[in-house]
Structures are given as C-alpha cells and as structure tokens.
Specification:
By secondary structure, the protein is an all-alpha fold. Helix content is 78%, strand content 0%.
Length: 525
C-alpha cells in the first residue's frame, strides 16, 4: 500500500474550512486593485503630494512582499490558525483606520499595517491547507480553489470599487474587509485546526529584519525601474538588497534555528517548483501591464470598462485552477506544466497579432488562452512547494512560494516593461510627425501617456497625427514584446520538463521528500 492510499481523506469540516480561508485570500488580492479607482476622490479630499500618493498606492504591496517569509516561519512557530486570526483582526482594524483617514500620512500608515496583516493571510491559509488535506489529490484540488480565490479577488476588485464609489465616499472600499474578517474570527476557531512545529525555536529577529529589508529593496528598485526607467538610485537599491540577501543566506547557514532552513532547497521538486513559479509570474504580470495600457491608452477605455474586458481572463485563470487537479491525475506535473506553458505561448502569440487586428476581442482571446495555461502551472508549483516539505515546515515553504511570486511579477514588469518602453521610444524616434514642437516631440517619445497629453494641446491636425502615430508605435511594440513572451513561455516549458522529470504529483512520489511526510499531532490551543 502506498502513502497515497494511507493518507486520510478530508471530510466536510475541512472543505467548509477551506471556504472560510478562501475569503481572506480573496480580500488579500482585491486590496491590491480596489484602491486604483478611488485615487481621484482621495486625492481631492486628502490632497497628498505626488510622493505620498505613490506610497499610498504602493506601500501595501511592498509590505506584503517584505513580510511573507517572516510570517510564514512565524506561523510554524506560534501556530498557523493563531497567526491567521491575529492577522485577520489587524486587517479589519487597519481597514477601519484607512477608511476614516483624514490625512495622507494616516492613510499611508494604515495601508502599511494592512500590508503586514495581509502577509499573514497567504502563508497561514496555504500552510493550513497542507495540514488539512493530507491526501495529495485532495490537496491539489484545495490549492486550486485557494488560487482561484486570489484570481477572483483581483478580478472583482475594480468592479466592487466602482460600485462602492458610485454610492459612497472613497473610504468605503476599505470597509468591505471588515465583515469578512469578523466572519473569519468567528468561524476560524471552530472550523480550522491548529498546527505548529512542536520543535520550533525562537524567531530570529535579526534574520526577520534582514529578510524584510532585502526583499523590500529589490521589489522597490524593480518597481521604480518599471515606472521611471533604469537609473542610478533604483539600481543601487537593488544591488544593496541583493547584497543583504546574500548576508541573510550566510546567516541562515550558520544558525542552529534559522528563519529559513536552507536544507529545503536540497529537494529538486522544491527548488525547481520555486524557479518555475518565478518564471510563470515573470511572464504573467507583463501581460497585465501591457493589456491594461492597450485598453485604456490605445482604445481609450475608462478604467472600469477596461476592467470589464479583463474579466474573461480572470475567469480563465479560475477555470484553469479548478481543472488542474483533474489533469494531473492522468499526467505528470512536468508534462502538465509543459502543456500549460505551450498554451501560454499560444496566448502571447495571439496577442502578438494585435498590430494586424484592432479591438478588444484579440485581447480577450489572447489573455484567456494564457490564463488557462498559467493557472495549472501556478497550482502545481504551489502544490509541489508545500507538498515536498515536512508538514511542520509548511509555513516557511508557503512564505517562500508567495515571495517567489511577488519577485517574479516585479521582475517581469521591470524587465519586459523596459523592453516595451525601449521599443516604443525607438518607434517614435523614427515617426514623430512634422509640425510637432521639439519639446513636445521629446515628451511624446518618452511614454504613450505623455504623447496623449501632448496631443490634446496641439492645434490643427498635428495633435491627431501625433496621437495616431503614438498609438501605432505602442501597438507594434506590444506585438513584439508579446512575441518575446511567447518564446520565453516555450523555454520555461522545456525547463519544467527537464527539471521535474520523474517527479510525481504527491509527496509520496517525490524522491527527495520520501519519508518526510510523517504528520505531527496537531497542537491544541
């Protein structure tokens, strides 16, 4: 009899518990997008400076990225349910603080607390799934539902925000979080079991600080490069973050009770899955950036309308996440991922035809294909990461999995966004219409948004000509970059086949993890 046969199957209580922990996961991703539509209203009321406005928008994601590893490890030490409930209470209180903030500084502080609290949600919920669903196939299905909740949150964020702003003030977008967190606090102790590592030592605060600062530095630098182009300051910040990360790894190798056990990376399944996760998000996040700009700046849609046209791709991701457990039952993870990357490549190849087909339908077709392809990849890499480590280390593994996703997405936006920008500037350098003043032409060559602003101020046909030229240049640049992403997806598929050869879908089949899945008794609280 195999370990797969011996693993106890989850019952009704576990599946209801999954529904409960899917709710904060939905809010976690919804809060990344729900604020975007509220920016004009809060700007008019709070009057933040340009720098303050950037921090209002960005600080939530920065704090999440920086705290994920620490929170995942903390859950292993103090208990995953306990950390989840603490995070839920903090998230609800910070949401109230943000909703009624009367100054930009207060809102920035509230968003920072939301980020720290949000960083407890993903690793806690994912590591709880690892302990609640011991049967590998059930666990893969549960992780598919968990990932689908993130996709749903990202999709409905702009829509919910739009509805709330239609009837209430800007702070109302934060109050949506409160009843969900109250529900989690009420049902969590009843439906969710408590698990922690019975042999865990103290949390190394120095390592936690090093992890936070190094991740924040790299993510911040990549984001600044994506927004402003390559410069000395963001480059220095990234290099400093990487140097600190090196010191962090050196410290972990020497500590008796490290924040991150580097022995986890000896598992081929674990290391390969993390790398593939980075590659998948590297490619995926670029598509979100390109398509949003095309819908709004080329086709002239408003944010809510662009959000509606983006819904099919979110549904594609949800469907792909739910289908992954069924597919992996008849094929190895390596082949499923290779097929997923092939479908992703087809989606980007479809988007590459955008210079020949105008309109939103080609965006829908391309993004649905790549979402259907990427969803099983994300589901299976997440499953491999948490399934190839002992259950008592599931929190650490969950934090690393989420951090790899954040890092891959930021890297993709920075690098592929820079590629698209460079292509656009080259195209515009060859084609700025005559009659456009030199200073205006320089601004138009910088970004498409700048070209649209300049075009509105030009008289006669010069404005219309500049607008048409800039949109055509962006569309061609989009097509070339999408073609590059298609090639990268094919390379990533080959990498998955090579690195995951012989790795099965459950922990009983991981050659490196064999014998590591003895489950410790739950620690009652």
């Amino acid at each position: 009899m195999t370990m797969h046969d011996q693993a106890p199957r989850a019952g009704r209580r576990e599946w209801i518990g999954l529904a409960v922990i899917a709710l904060p996961s939905l809010l976690y991703s919804m809060d990344l997008t729900v604020l975007n539509l509220a920016v004009p209203q809060l700007s008019a009321e709070l009057r933040p400076s340009a720098s303050q406005l950037l921090w209002i928008v960005d600080i939530y994601g920065f704090m999440i990225a920086g705290c994920l590893i620490t929170m995942g490890t903390l859950g292993d030490r103090i208990g995953r349910r306990r950390l989840l409930l603490i995070g839920a209470a903090a998230f609800g209180l910070a949401s109230i603080l943000a909703a009624f903030a009367h100054s930009a500084g207060t809102l920035i502080a509230a968003r920072a607390i939301l980020g720290v609290a949000g960083a407890t949600l993903a690793p806690s919920t994912l590591s709880l799934i690892r302990n609640m669903f011991l049967d590998p196939r059930q666990r893969t299905a549960a992780i598919g539902i968990w990932i689908a909740s993130f996709s749903a949150g990202g999709a409905i964020g702009p829509l919910v925000g739009g509805v709330m702003l239609e009837h209430f003030w800007w702070g109302s977008v934060f109050l949506i979080n409160v009843p969900v967190m109250v529900l989690l606090l009420a049902l969590g102790p009843v439906l969710l079991p408590e698990f922690r590592d019975p042999n865990a030592g103290r949390l190394d605060l120095v390592s936690a600080a090093m992890s936070l600062v190094s991740v924040l530095a790299v993510i911040y630098g990549l984001k600044r490069i994506a927004e402003d182009g390559l410069g000395r300051l963001p480059t220095m910040v990234i290099l400093a973050g990487m140097a600190l990360a090196g010191l962090f790894l050196r410290r972990q190798a020497r500590l008796a009770e490290p924040l991150v056990d580097l022995a986890l990376f000896r598992s081929r399944a674990f290391s390969a899955a993390l790398t593939i996760n980075i590659l998948g998000f590297f490619i995926a996040f670029s598509s979100f950036l390109f398509t949003a700009q095309y819908l709004q700046l080329v086709l002239g849609m408003k944010p809510l309308e662009a959000g509606l046209w983006s819904l099919p791709s979110a549904f594609g991701f949800i469907v792909g996440s739910m289908l992954a457990p069924r597919i992996v039952g008849s094929a190895s993870p390596a082949h499923v991922m290779a097929g997923g990357f092939a479908l992703t490549a087809l989606g980007f190849a479809t988007l590459a035809g955008i210079s020949h087909v105008e309109g939103p339908m080609i965006i829908v077709a391309g993004t649905v294909l790549l979402s259907l392809g990427l969803a099983p990849i994300v589901t299976l890499t997440t499953d491999l990461v948490v399934g190839s480590v002992p259950p008592e280390r599931a929190g650490t593994a969950s934090g690393l999995s989420e951090t790899s996703a954040e890092f891959g997405g930021a890297l993709g936006i920075a690098i592929l966004g820079s590629v698209l920008t460079a292509l656009y500037r080259y195209q515009m350098g060859l084609a700025v219409p005559s009659g456009v003043p030199p200073e205006a032409a320089a601004a138009a060559r910088d970004t498409l948004g700048g070209a649209l602003t300049i075009a509105k101020d030009l008289s006669g046909t010069a404005g219309a000509d500049l607008l048409a030229t800039a949109r055509a240049a962006f569309t061609r640049s989009f097509a070339i970059t999408a073609g590059l992403c298609s090639a990268l997806a094919m390379v990533a598929g080959l990498f998955a086949v090579v690195m995951l050869r012989g790795v099965g879908g459950g922990p009983d089949q991981h050659d490196e993890a064999r014998g590591s899945d003895a489950v410790p008794a739950p620690v009652a609280r």
